[in-house]
Design goal:
The chain is mostly helical.
Length: 386
């Protein structure tokens, strides 16, 4: 007879305050999105298998934003559910504002007010967006960009707009509701998002509409939120902890099946619009649930410890700044440099060096931003919240 004591089932009160494995998810997501958005790989490297795989991987990096959405929905919904105990939703909005707004608005202010006074010759993208900058200031560029407005100088800001719009409403929808009720709300919203994408496709909306509109991309955020609710239902929580390996296997197989079916992932293909976004959301949410339950159970192993690595933890810490700066650095420095050295465009080793440099430069900019600007606002969290 075994002398080991059965492990206690995790309860809502016992859920981890920090999921180390999910830092790994965030770190990998920011790597993938940077490599995607700064890529200048040419079709000439497609002549061999390695080149084809590299280009497919780079072209599919847009899916990392879906991974960010699912992760964000999981973590922030968990915070909101914990706030239910003391009705401190005001704290959520205060903390969200202090985390997101300072850097975002500092970049806009620098681009639209400071840079024009420093240079008589502005980048063409900035000139195009100047008359339409208010879309960016109001965090609604994701609705304007598919229509050709306010999406030139900061095209990647659309995802930040989606998150801010979602989190303006989400706390109001789930406030003081039970986890089971949140699950029912989530199912309804996922169905609305899927129906909205299908409608956009059938009525020949602009290609980026289904990719950027909040109503068509909210399901990944909602799925993450539903996962956080599931872990706060004791019966479900115990089942998910027991099935963690199966969740990870399902995540990998569903992602690979979609990747193989489309031979890479295209954000504008009919398959992606009709079922790809939904599949990615489900796949990534299963990944997040599987890894989170390993943190809950305290289990370890070399392949789980990879997600808890210090390197990925560093990337996770600075991921917001890296996301804000990477496209700016790529457009201002990376692409001009690579085009000045055309032989590098068709070289796989050169592409790997360029990708690494893009990551390091983005990390450096994010490090400076965090320590010179962001952390001073973050230090106000406890003072301004209850």
């Amino acid at each position: 007879m075994s002398n080991t004591t059965p492990q206690a089932k995790p309860t809502w009160a016992q859920l981890p305050q920090h999921y180390a494995t999910l830092d790994g998810v965030r770190g990998l997501a920011i790597l993938w999105v940077i490599l995607h958005n700064t890529s200048v790989a040419e079709e000439s490297i497609l002549n061999n298998l390695q080149g084809k795989l590299l280009v497919a991987f780079l072209d599919s990096g847009w899916a990392a934003v879906t991974l960010f959405f699912s992760l964000s929905g999981f973590l922030i919904t968990g915070i909101l559910l914990d706030y239910q105990k003391n009705h401190r939703y005001r704290d959520f909005y205060v903390r969200r504002t202090l985390r997101i707004f300072p850097l975002y608005y500092a970049v806009l202010f620098g681009a639209f007010f400071i840079l024009p006074h420093l240079s008589a010759e502005l980048p063409r993208r900035l000139v195009l967006d100047q008359p339409q900058q208010w879309w960016l200031w109001l965090y609604v560029s994701n609705w304007a960009s598919p229509l050709g407005m306010a999406g030139h100088v900061f095209p990647h800001f659309w995802s930040l707009a989606v998150e801010e719009q979602f989190y303006l409403v989400w706390p109001l929808l789930i406030g003081q509701r039970s986890p089971r009720t949140i699950l029912r709300i989530s199912i309804m919203l996922i169905a609305i998002a899927q129906a909205f994408r299908i409608a956009l496709y059938l009525y020949h909306a602009p290609d980026d509409a289904s990719y950027m509109f909040t109503l068509s991309r909210m399901d990944a955020l909602v799925m993450g939120g539903a996962a956080a609710a599931l872990l706060r239902i004791p019966a479900w929580s115990a089942t998910l902890v027991a099935r963690a390996p199966s969740l990870l296997a399902f995540s990998a197989l569903s992602f690979l099946a979609l990747f193989a079916e489309e031979r890479g992932l295209s954000p504008h293909s009919s398959d992606t619009i009709l079922f790809g976004h939904l599949t990615l959301g489900i796949s990534f949410t299963a990944l997040i649930l599987g890894l989170a339950t390993f943190d809950m159970s305290g289990k370890s192993g070399w392949w789980i410890d990879l997600w808890r690595s210090k390197l990925l933890g560093v990337l996770a810490k600075y991921s917001y700044g890296m996301y804000v700066f990477h496209k700016i650095i790529g457009d201002a420095v990376g692409r001009p440099f690579m085009r000045a050295h055309p032989a590098w465009l068709s070289s796989i080793p050169a592409q790997l060096i360029y990708g690494t440099a893009s990551i390091l430069l983005s990390l450096g900019a994010a490090f400076l931003s965090f320590h010179l600007l962001e952390k001073h606002f973050l230090s106000l969290k406890n003072k301004l919240s209850g």
